[in-house]
Amino acid sequence: MKVILNVDAITYPLTGIGHYTQALGQQLAHQPSITQLKLFSADQWIEDISTTAEHNQWLSQIRQHVPFKALALNLYAKRRAAKFKRLTVGLHDHTFHSPNFVLMPFEGRSVATFHDLSFIHYRHTQPQYRLQFLDREIPKTLAQADALITPSEFVKQDIIKQFTYPAHNIHVTPLGVSADFKPYTEAQCAETLQTHQLQHKNFILSVATTEPRKNLSRLLVAYTQLPETLRKSHPLVLVGSKGWLNQDLEQQIKSLLNQGQIISLGYVNQQQLQHLYAAAKLTALPSLYEGFGLPIIESMASGTAVLTSEDSAMQEVAGGHAMLCDPLDVHHIAGCLQQMLEDHTWLLNAQTNGLSHSKQFSWDNCTNKTIQAYG
Question: Which of 55, 201, 293, 334 has a 20 to 30 A CA-CA distance from 355?
Fold first, then answer.
């Protein structure tokens, strides 16, 4: 089997889709059934996936310094499609996989990964330029795709409901978690904890991009409703890069930072993230909507209990081993946080059962199911 993988999602800081693309590319390179793997990014072939982020540095700079709105996005998409068409002449015997929703025109077999349908259900949480782009490109992708890949059964059923796309051509490939996410000892986490002035198992961790869909605003309000003694002994630590439509949220975070009620670390490297997961008392991901929710499994694999939403794919991914909250009910979120912090028996069971549950999520399994989708 010959495969072309689009890897332009691998740009720093890596998002969930970036991690997925990187892990998948690394795994595909070592599969005996893949006789040729070609990596395409933006306007060129990439020889080594480990250098992809370096090649994509200009994309990162554009996203940071240029308002990546309709005109810029459309010009980039046209340039990428034109270059891809020229470079793939004669490669119709390959399977082309776009791991980030949108396919470029291709003469051979095409597969796209749909991580979620938030652009349909939560349009108010996304910038207008992105919605316009997806509204135009998704129908083309659905018409072209020979198969779709989704990370959860929830998303598969959502696609069937929203689009006239054959159910048997939608493949569920749950995401994986790196073996580097594991329970670390207090001593192993010490340097990271000292760097950020945190105490082992005495803080609440939230790993999420600062964008509306992650529901951080309600989480912050819920946290401030906890008893003062719990807040003093368990600060809320925010980890994640800046997203879109976050002006009000940033002001809310700034206000709570000034009051000394929360800690915001921004984007941290992978080793620090692994240590933070393992050292946290619990991880909170009360998103409005997720197609999977990678922090759920990363936290469980680190031996840390999880609070997440009862909505969309999060309940499916948690598998009955997380505390579930109503993401729209601040009081319910606060009550769940307090229960987790005070009920040590529940917390210990969640840690043990979550760790066991996480072992079924591997990038090997994700890759094998992906290759099946390639046909």
Answer: 334
Between CA 2 and CA 375 the distance in angstroms is 11
Q: What is the mean pLDDT of residues 53-80?
A: 66
Instruction: Measure the CA–CA gap between 224 and 69, rounded to whole angstroms.
Output: 35
| Long-range pairs for 222-225: beta carbons < 8 A, 24 or more residues apart | 222/286, 222/330, 222/331, 222/333, 222/334, 222/337, 223/261, 223/262, 223/334, 223/337, 224/256, 224/261, 225/330, 225/331, 225/334
pTM of the predicted model as reported, rounded to 2 decimal places:
0.93
CA–chain centroid gap for 173, Å, is: 14
What are the distances in angstroms from CA 145 to CA 92, 109, 273? 14, 8, 36
DSSP 185: P
Segment 60-81 shows an average pLDDT of: 68
147-150 and 170-172 beta bridge pairing: parallel
Nearest to 8 by CA among 106, 76, 85, 92: 76
- Is residue 100 a contact partner of residue 134, using CB atoms and an 8 Å limit? no
Helix (H) or strand (E) holding 262: strand 262-266
Q: How many CA atoms lie within 13 A of 162 on its CB side?
A: 16
φ and ψ at 245, to 5 degrees? 45, 45
d(CA 307, CA 183) in angstroms, rounded, equals: 18
- Quickly list DSSP for 310-358: SSTTHHHHHTT-SEEE-TT-HHHHHHHHHHHHH-HHHHHHHHHHHHHHH
Cα 6 from chain centroid (whole Å)? 17
Residue 318 and residue 309: Cα distance in Å, rounded?
10
Q: What are phi and psi of 325, to 5 degrees?
A: -125, 160
Give the separation between CA 333 and CA 225, rounded to whole angstroms: 10
Is residue 166 helix, strand or coil? coil
Q: Read off the pLDDT band of 73 (50, 70, 90).
A: confident
Q: Average of pLDDT values for 124-141?
A: 93
- pLDDT surpassing 90 at residue 340: yes
